[in-house]
Here is the input.
Amino acid sequence: MVNVTVDPLTRIEGHQRISTEVDANGFITDAQSSSLIFRGFERILQKQDPRDAAFLTQRICGVCPISHGMTATNALDDLYGVADQVPKDALVMRNIFQGLNMIASHATHIYVLFGPDLANPAYKKVLTTLGDTGSAVWNEMVGRFAPISYKMDGAPVPVGSSYLAAIPEKKRLQEAIALIAGRMPGPSSLYPGGYTYPATVADITKLSTYYLQVMDFVSKHTLRVDFNTWIENTYKASSPQKAVSFVTEHLQGLVDKATTSNDFSKEAGWGDVEFYAAFGSELVGETLLGLPASLKHDTIGGYKDPSKICFVSYGGYYKPKDGYDPKSPAGDRIFTSGVVSGKLEYQKFDPEKITESTAHSFYNNSTKDLAPAKGETIPYTDPNKIAFTGGSDSQYSWDKAPRYDGIPGEVGPLARMLNIKEPLVTGLAQVFAEKGYSPANVYTRMLARMQEVTILAYELLNWVTVDYTPGGKISVPIDLNAAKNNQGMGLWEAPRGALGHWVSAGSDGKVTNYQCVVPGTWLMSPRDSNGIPGPLEQSLIGSKINTVGDVDYTNPFGIFHMGRSYDPCISCAVHTIDLTGKNAPNTLRIV
Amino acid sequence: MSTGIKNLVRTLDSVDFLKMDRRTFMKALGAMGAATFLGTYKSDIVSALDFAETKLVWLHGSECTGCSESVLNAGNPDLVQALQKLNVNLVFHETICAQQGIWNDGKLVNNAELNSEVLLEDTYKQGGYILVVEGSIPNGPDGSGRYLVIGNKTFKESLAEAAKNAVAIVAVGACAAYGGITSADSEVAKDTDYRGVAFAKEDPTKGMLKELGIDKPVINIPGCPAHPDWVLLTLGAVILGKIKIPNDLDTLLDNYGRPKVFYPPDHTVHDNCPRRGYYDRGELDEEVGGPGCLWKLGCKAPYAHADCGIRRWNGSVSMCTQAGGPCIACVEPNFPDGSRPLYVEAEDKGVLLGANIDTVSKVAVGAAAVAAGVHAVRRMGKGE
Here is the structure.
């Protein structure tokens, strides 16, 4: 047994320590996920003007500040009692603002944070023993995804083509956000009761230009199949089976063409999504498509006991109408709220079922599991108690352990796609479950993220071109007295997953308690008061540290993939155009 | 392309930054965006001078990665191209580097190509790098620094190791410069005891380097986040040898360690605010979503020393006040406490900040407050 620890896990937002015990066959037998930073954010907001939360909670994360700002604003809409009056155009602006951010965030995750691991030297070792096909695949991987300042065997490796091309697009998306929000990161345009900036016709025109530029990148690098064809046959497919068939047939066509040429280039139709969809998975790549090898990302990062995991979504993106119900996000959101069990059964989401345990965290809180609105944040102040090597029974993280009805929850794109019954992701999850794999694994987690980008690009067009009316009402006044002795709950979806803020105000209208339950806490959480490991810990335990090749404790790239597959965070954006026909993002008429 | 644009391009293309004296150089720097500066900086000059590779180590303390995000938004050229132009070797940056810390039974394994902790040890030994710090440093609890541990070390220890052999230290963002959001008043602030690299809020005697007994100059690039131009132009000037450390710092930096060229002591965001005309006419909005001046909605632009109004953000498309949100003076050493409550107008802030604010702007703030009062009276007279 070898202790293999990754600390710091880089290429995430923040710092994380992952400690594992690994057996002689490379399987992880125990794991602890430790967040070793305490900032005291929730306490910073106490006794303050509640409205400051929309600004200050953005500073929790500079990668998705918008999601925190949005969630805080939802909580403030509720606190000031104006949620049912927020004008339609303000809600649509918020949708556009969040949608751009989520696309940028996912793109950054795929290319800057997760992608570089595909250029890990272990893959070179394995693939280059597989003849011309293996070498061709390796050349694509390193040629597309190598990060900056990367060296192998002492020699500098050129920056990957996809990586390099993605950076200006990320910048462009941020610019689009700034256009309607002041700047990015740190936008200034959120306020309870509405939105501070009414986008003009000129802004809409400019957004459309950004959109086309980004879609040009997507069609060259990311998804080589026609965007509309993809949406029609996956997101809009009539059944999960049909969506999966479309994708496997599309991939089979590419594979057939490549059998003699060994040409896996973008020019030959292998966009980054196609490439990963085929080569990322043992089941899809080797079993279904007959490829000689795969990265086997579907064999790691899964859950071994379906009764100890669920997939939670609070719901995101408002329906385009005046006002919304802050307490019941299910019916009022485009991405519905919901809970999917580890066995893929659907349940209704009830915010009352969320609790947090601090049994294995560095807090002197009460020992009972608490609802977020009643949450406490009383940190250890004895330096010697802030230890993290005491094993699974000890206190080893600043993360609290959120649970839904007592069960750890995976949040994020996979959870959202399952909850909205997105055909492709749902179909894939079912296929994996049927074939004895965990429906959630590194591969499905990544594909769900990629699919969510295409869906958002599609939905954004509607918000900008159909739902938003320039010159409409953008806010309603709030009464500061309404906050007195009141509470507010904000439920929303950040790129990384379900995000909730809970605010209470006293008789002076100032904050008495502010608690955030963030996606990172759900995903990276330590054990709870029942000793159940958090989602990342569960996905580590029983997985191998190397998906292919010999066991190598000194290059445990499986741990890198698992840790990063949950997307510890970032951001981005799109357009404002009028369609000439339905679903036609590339043909547009400037309004 | 019109003749005018051609001429402009030719002029910029012929600018030889290296031949400029420091004063002219800094002026040019202030007037320009990073895009212009780096885009027109001739690479043949670099090679003619046999311009050496500069190593850059970018450490993340208690931060949100917002400043890195901001720098990734750098214009045309983007960050990767900028690094190439300036011949910078970005040795380590936690959010984008290939490496991570890898330990077997408590010992570092593998090599610097894959293991970040080995890479950093090697780099610190070699020295000769520019150190950029993003994020603040907890001194607590009880001076132990254990509120932030990365790679089995407190960040306080890591900073000491990294600072020792650095040839220049740049603190990027409000947190690294002054403590920022992590230093905000709260019931746990005493325990966490967050510090900037060289300052704790306005206090230059409580910076983390002082606490560690390290006496090295630090350039502060505050902002929440810092503007990519401020960061890249400052780094560019240091790399090109146009800012000599420590000799030039006394004249280049203000009392809070900020380059005056980007954070002018005699200029505030209010001076070039896109809504300034509304202020001058006394059209002060009291609800969000309108076109008017945001003073009554708590705007702190008259207290914020930065060139946002000229430079704007994200490819110069907008800025906070342009989008209808108040300026939160995120470049000032006491952000966020000095700016809270964010949405309440702040006529008395001049006094709160007064002990530390430059005289010129104190007068400006006074004038602003008076003007706001005057406008209010005028409007009342009109029965509004």
